[in-house]
Amino acid sequence: MRHRWWMVLVVALQIAILLVMVGMKWSTLTYGTKVLLETRQVDPYDVFRGDYLTLSLDIGRLDLNKVEHQDQEFKQNETVYVSLQPDGRYWTARAVSRDQPSDRSVFIKGRVIYYLSGDPYLNVDYGIDSYYIPQGQGYRVDWQTPLEAEVSVDRWGGSALSRLLIGGQALEFE
Q1: What is the pTM of this model?
Q2: Which is more confidently placed, 137 or 148?
């Protein structure tokens, strides 16, 4: 009898964790600040995954000569916070830091993929670089047209891909 209650408790805990994870993404999508990021699409097809887009966000490669930073040496897999600012139609990187910004600016949390000391570029992954397309629908994407990513960013820097725009039109599938 005691063993059964432990099993029920473990299963309930796993379900609760999954619900919290889904709830956090839903909250980011619903209440987060919408920012439009310029991006390029990369390989549209993979034998094992099918049709999908790998996005190359412009804010994924930061030029440290153009972005504010504290002359920090960044390490691979380190968490960084990139402050964003509107620049015409798109949002661009204004500053990058290891510390979460204390002002009320919009920022996105990422992870350093690659940085070589002395190199002016910092490559950052935000966890929003893949978009899966329904099977057999990849032919509907025009790979020559500019691509834009609408991203929701919450007040802790969490992000979620809201939608993709190709040529100003939302990417929709049947």
Answers
A1: 0.80
A2: 148
